[in-house]
Amino acid sequence: MKNTLSAAKPASGSLKKPAWFVAFGFLVVLILINWYLQPSFFDGMVLHSNLTTFLPLILVAIGQTFVIMGGDIDLSVGSIAALVNVVTVSVIAMAGGDSASVPIGLVAGLVVAVLCGAFNGLLISYLRLQPMVATFGTGIIFSALALWILPQAGLAVPDVYWMTYGGTILGVPTVLWILVAGFVFVLIMKRRPFESHLKAVGGNRAGAFQSGIDMSFTRLLSFALCGLFAGFAALCLTGETASGDPLLGQSLAMGSISAVVLGGTMLSGGVGGAVGSIFGALLLGMIGNVIFFAGLPFEYQTLVQGLIVLAALAGGVLVARK
Amino acid sequence: MSPAITVRDLTKRFDKVHALTDGRLTVERGEIHALLGANGCGKSTLSKIVAGAYAPTSGTVLIDGKEVSFRSPRDAEQMGIALFYQELSLIPKMSVEANIFLRREPRNGLGFIDRDRMRAETLKLLEMFKEAVGDDIRPDALVADLTPGQRQIVEILKVYAKEPRIVIMDEATAALDGRQVKVFFDILRKKREEGVSTIFISHRLDEVFEICDHATIMRNGAVVAETTIADTTPEHVVHMMVGDVKKAPKRQLRDEDDKAPLLKLDAVGSAQLDNVSLSVAPGEIVGLGGLQGQGQSTLLRSLFGALPITSGEVLLNNEPVSIRKPADAVHRKIAYVSGDRGPDAALPGRSIFENLAAAILVSERRKLVRAKELQPQLAGVASAFKTKYARMTDAIGTLSGGNQQKIFIARWLATNPQLILLDDPTKGIDLAAKADLFALIRGLADSGVAVLLYSSEESELLDNCDRIAVFNDGAIVTELSGAEMDSFHLTRAAYGEA
Amino acid sequence: MSETSSNMNSENARLRLAAILREPVVLALFAIIILLGIGEAVSPGFARGDQIIKLLTVAALLGFAAAGQNLVVLAGGEGIDLSVGAMISLGAVIAGNVMDGSNGGIIPAVIVASGVTFLIGMVNGLGVNLIRIPPLVMTLGMTSVIQGGLVVFSRGIPSGNAAPALMNFINQPVVFGIPGILFIWLVLIIGMVFMLRATAFGLSIYAVGANPQAARLVGLPVKAIRTIVFGLSGALAGLTGVFVIGYTGNSFISVGDQYMLPSIIAVVIGGTSLAGGSGGYIGTVAGAIALILLQSVLTTLHLEFWGRQLIFGGTLLLLLMFYGRQKSARI
User: Fold this and answer.
1) Same structural domain, B172 and B227
2) Which of A92, B96, B106, C190 has the fewest CB atoms found within 10 Å of its own CB?
3) Residue where one domain finishes, among candidates B197, B212, B242
4) In contact, C113 and C95? CB cutoff 8 Å
5) Cβ–Cβ of C140/A123 closer than 8 Å?
6) Which of C228, C292, C318, C247 is nearest to C96 (CA)?
7) How far apart are CA C293 and CA A15, in angstroms?
8) Whole-number Å distance between alpha carbons of C215 and B350
9) Distance (Å, rounded) from C-alpha B48 to C-alpha C23?
10) Cβ–Cβ < 8 Å for B198, B47
11) A140-144, C8-12, C15-19, C85-89: lowest mean pLDDT where?
12) Is residue A119 part of a domain?
């Protein structure tokens, strides 16, 4: 028992730096620059609002990491988020639209999220469809369902939902609770055999199979987990927008993949971890912040952001190769 | 008492190919049982079915007299069967300990991996090989960072970590050096005393005769004989495995001083090569001997431009050359044939024609393929070499391993090379194909081609080379020729006692 | 004896037939015929000659975009070009501004648009092969850079106009009631097939895709080949952009986005393996036509948008189920 959550013995020599090392370094630099450009950066309010902005991508990136570690990819996370959002707001409205109906909506949303992920996993690990194209296809289907449930943006949630999300619990901002919970989850997974099996599946399919790992089920679980986290992200976005929007979260798929890669997880599978993805997602958010506060003309911001992200990806790959 | 394992009437079909038509096997408890046969005879298919990795097309498998039907390797594992995978089941980017305990990680009360216990048990397992590897393998080292021999040891430990009652060792000694093999055999004997049954598959007959009790011999997907090792001889076993074998033509002694060297190495060095000096004349077959992984393959790959050379000089026809990439070598009419044809030579999914044409397109700097002109030409080269195939447009995967290797050699013959680098070219090829191959190489040498041959089987070197340069730790320790070219001198030199 | 051999023959014939039916090109052709049938049944006149030519015109644009994508995917190494959409937008905006409505500007527009996109494609290729950024990530990153560049260049306002001659060439019949774009597509198809089957470069692409290490060990310049295919993909996307502005008349900075994922889908349902090394352009052509046809049939069904999308996604998965499947670990 003594070693459950205590630090692992440093895997000295062979494993060297953790995969998230580069992303973390970049992140510190960007925070310092942001602090310089925006002296109020460390004020509680500013941190709170930044975290609220970054949180959905962080959560999606955590889920995406598991899928990518298994050697797959999920392009449907944005559509899952949209579907979960409209399901949640619709269920809340149907259940009466009062604060008592909020938990029902949350549960309904998360159930849909896991079902979507499991559907992806079923197609990919049991029916053996190519992951990128298959999740592109299921993404279209999830989006279509979202449009069917709620053709237009609207349907406000009860005040208690967004007030709780935007407020504090026991004096600590709710968004911080969620971030910490995400972190703890990631650390737990790191110690569980599941993550090790997933990496084996992503690192050497034949070897994993010969070692007796139930590959199909392991991959299915990773997709379900990814769906669940897309669901969490959707609930956060719902807390932010306080209403339903069937077109929500369209940039989440590509953003989460960038975050995962920035965090040191290899797209080919088998190497990396969700801690890095958290840093990667924060990094993406901070790049946007810094550009905003650097006072660039508006029309240059997208270009510069694109260049910096590309440079960060290239830099990360170069450093990781050493 | 019923045997540990009984296999009856086992068959396996892959699409249209019958890999196994009559699989039979009986292995008693506490027995080391050899499964013998030329490549592609169905040994691996049979053992993978027993281990649950393949589903049989028909037939029965009995464990301890009870019929079983495995749906995955996991099912077989639960019955106490563990298979050593020839192609290794290790995950390169994971640590030694994580690999050994993959899916069977010791857990603590919270369901977390108990890393202390995993570490302790890994160290205990490593102790078994301590005599051969010392402390070189660390439990937390990445498998990707290990040498091939060390990886093979980890795979062996992974098998024994499951505490199996029936072990299938499929070419488990392939990458091990002499000392490692000795330790491994000690382990096998100890396990035999504990009642563990071992199915032992190896191309090295001397090993089989050293360690095994019984043998089952296969040919073309069917069992042809079952015998007790004590009652038979290697010659007889080979005869049962392949039928008639042609001998490579006897080596002719040639004048030592008739030709200037085609290739001359002057103190060539790199990370894994140490001051290698060597010369090869046209018409000469020079062997590279020594234990595995002493720099022989590295030298061949470096000469071909696939690995860097950092010091010294390479002279081709008396001119210093700089070969920085394989294309440079190809344009200087150098050919490189690797025994690892899967990763190094095969273009999977592509046609036999494309696989044959790959090198000549580069060597002739062609822009257009002109298949009509090229196909007959390449077909000529391939058939001179007794390559069996139906159509040039068939996928390469439809050929057996031996025929594939012939295609990959024919690929180079089409470029009319002046120097051929053979890097353990007969790995996993049956004896008939080997004989064809060496007859061809001798023919090429007689027509003036210079050949550098590395082989992991010393008999291949002794039978086919004019001289043998023996490697140890990246350097040539001695050169054997004439009367010295025998197994005794070669072994002595390989172990660095020359 | 003769009986068994004739049994064998019919068995072989059956297997061969089954193999042919499993050919992606054949499947895509089947899909095309079935879709035409459905379209005609729902809305008589759907399969009329002039309607089909209109569909083919749209398919040609996708076919051009997918040609480059096809090469990148064939060359392997997880090759994929997500910047195709942004490159098309870039090509269209460049072409619009170079032409600015004058016929004399068509040739310069083609040269500048495909030249610039070729260079950007080469940057993709170098990033992938020299720095070893995964293709998915490199081209995704390049997409935002191009989009950012377009925002700077045009300040978000549609700019530039197609030359009238270009618009006529693409939208109006040239000979036999067939618009010029289809002739150009035919030239591209012939050129792609010739390149992939009859040139050393084409065979090298397959070799590099099938096994890069083996390709290197016969002396093929693996990195150079994998770099050039990205350049070609860029150039073809830029050219597509020129045709797109010719088709629509003017351009906006996200005009190409709609081609990005369909270009991959056309390649995949046309039977090119995303793992590289197998497939070809004929399949991609069939895939592009099938894809456009499917969208068109769904439009004629008078369904709501979500219903169309639902069927589109479902059909895609169904097609993948037929032959986009990967090998099982257990044989």
Assistant:
1) yes
2) C190
3) B242
4) yes
5) no
6) C247
7) 52
8) 12
9) 31
10) no
11) C8-12
12) yes
Tokens standing for residue B289: 């001997």
Domain boundaries, position A174: 21-321
ipTM value greater than 0.85: no
Question: Do residues B330 and B461 share a domain?
Answer: yes
Contact B349, C210 (CB under 8 A): yes
Q: Find chains touching chain C: ≥3 CB pairs under 8 Å.
A: A, B
Residue B307 contacts A, CB cutoff 8 Å: no
List the CATH number of the domain containing A51: 1.10.3470
Which domain does B389 fall in, by range? Answer: 263-494
The nearest alpha carbon in chain A to B110 belongs to: A4
Measured over the CA atoms of residue B141, residue B159, residue B397 and residue B292, the dihedral's sign is positive
Q: Would you state the structure tokens that stand for residue B89, as one six-digit string?
A: 């089941």
In a domain, A112, yes or no: yes
Q: Give contacts of C147 with chain A, Cβ < 8 Å.
A: 302, 306
Which of B77, B108, B140 is the closest to A11 by Cβ? B140
Domain assignment present for residue A68? The answer is yes
* Domains in chain C: ranges and CATH: 24-323 (1.10.3470)
Residue that has been written with the tokens 């992939």 in this structure: C196
Q: Is residue B258 part of a domain?
A: no
Size of interface B-C (CB pairs under 8 A): 90
CB of B50 within 8 A of CB of B68?
A: no
What is the rounded CA–CA span in Å between residue A258 and residue A282? 11
Q: Residue B226 sits in a domain of what CATH number? A: 3.40.50.300
Residue C88 has which token pair? 């098309």
**How far apart are alpha carbons C331 and C321 in whole angstroms?**
19
H or E element, residue C249? none
Residue A11 in domain: no
From first to last of the 322 residues of chain A, give the pLDDT tens digit. Answer: 333 333 333 333 334 567 788 888 889 999 999 999 989 988 888 999 999 999 999 999 999 999 999 999 999 999 999 999 999 999 999 998 888 899 999 999 999 999 999 999 999 999 988 898 899 899 999 999 999 999 988 888 998 999 999 988 988 899 999 999 999 999 999 999 999 999 999 999 888 988 889 999 999 999 999 999 999 999 999 999 999 999 998 889 989 999 999 898 988 888 889 999 999 999 999 998 898 888 888 888 888 888 988 888 887 777 766 5
Looking from the CA of B289 toward its CB, the CA atoms found within 13 Å total 35
Extended strands (E) in B132-211: 166-170, 197-201
CB-based contact B55 C331, cutoff 8 Å: yes
Residue B78 domain-assigned? yes
Q: Given CB atoms, is A240 within the 8 Å cutoff of chain B?
A: no
Q: Is C219 left (phi over 0), alpha (psi -120 to 50) or beta?
A: left
Q: How many domains does chain B have?
A: 2
Q: What is the rounded CA–CA span in Å between residue C272 and residue C264?
A: 10
Chain B nearest-CA residue for C15: B16
Check if the beta carbon of residue A134 is closer than 8 Å to that of residue A219.
Answer: no
Residue contact B103–A197, C-beta within 8 A: yes
C11, C217, C273, C274, best to mutate vs chain B, most B CBs in 10 Å: C217
Q: What are phi and psi of B128, to 5 degrees?
A: -60, -35
In a shared domain, residues B232 and B293: no
Count the Cβ atoms, other than its own, within 10 Å of residue B390: 9
The tokens for C124 are 């993709």
Both B297 and B184 in one domain: the answer is no
Q: Does A15 touch chain B (CB under 8 A)?
A: yes
**How far is residue B461 from each of residues A191, B251, B490, B491, measured CA to CA in Å?**
51, 12, 10, 12
Chain A with chain B: Cβ pairs closer than 8 A: 97
Four-residue CA torsion sign, C126, C131, C137, C143: negative
CA distance B144 to chain A (A): 10
Question: How far apart, in whole angstroms, are the C-alpha atoms of residue B315 and residue B2?
Answer: 66
